[in-house]
Amino acid sequence: MSTLAITREVSPSVGRCELTHLERQEIDAGRAIAQHRQYARRLVEAGCRPFTLPGDPDLPDCVFVEDIAVVFDEVAIVTRPGAVSRRAEIPVVRAALEPFRPLRQIRAPGRLDGGDVLTVGRTVYVGRSTRTNASGIEQLERLLEPLDYRVKPVEIRSCLHLKSAVSLVAEETLLLQPEWVSPEAFAGLEAIEVAAAEPHGANALRVLDRVIYPSGFERTRERLEARGIEVVAVDLSELAKAEGGVTCCSLVFEGARRQRGA
Ligand code: CIR
Q: 77: which strand partners?
């Protein structure tokens, strides 16, 4: 079995992306594309098999595939993103996942963004955000509890998604921004806090033996390295203007194709 990384090319219209907490700044689409290619290379260097989906000029946020599905060993749950403009991103991601997992779908009135879902072992933390509502969380719970996962809703504040505030950097270790999410929500896990001067530094992508991490958060990076975590930096500064980070731009999972009819 190999680890698969699904990514989707940056849309030339990325400058018209959804924004919630940031003021709109001009995004250099050419630079965003080059940075995203570098990110995709980091995934391959980490040992992933790349699976690249085409961008769509009509879907400014299509590069942020994480929000469209949550992949578990047993199933892939296709979301119903909170932003209406992003729902047309679903078909391409759904079709890409179909050979690999049985699919389930979050349905109206549920809303769920994959960026709000953080899985640690059999526990699935879900952020209550402006994108994810109670029905989305209930549906997730109904789909996952029979598979022996525990779904735990988590309050967040002042950020877009749960994973803007907290991400997994080692087996049972989180990287966390305490102003946006309470460490108490994650009893039993270790938490490394971001440096106070780097409030946006909590989004890290753990892939196999390393963590892919945005450049520019040097003090937080030192904290990770001091814990023996191998950190590989990538500059995603253009996509950061679209409120995207390193987890948002891929779906990484063990990628054996399903047997026919399974
Ligand atoms: C949005 O607002 O939906 C996009 N501009 C950014 C999505 C980032 N996704 C993520 O954090 N999982």
A: 70, 104
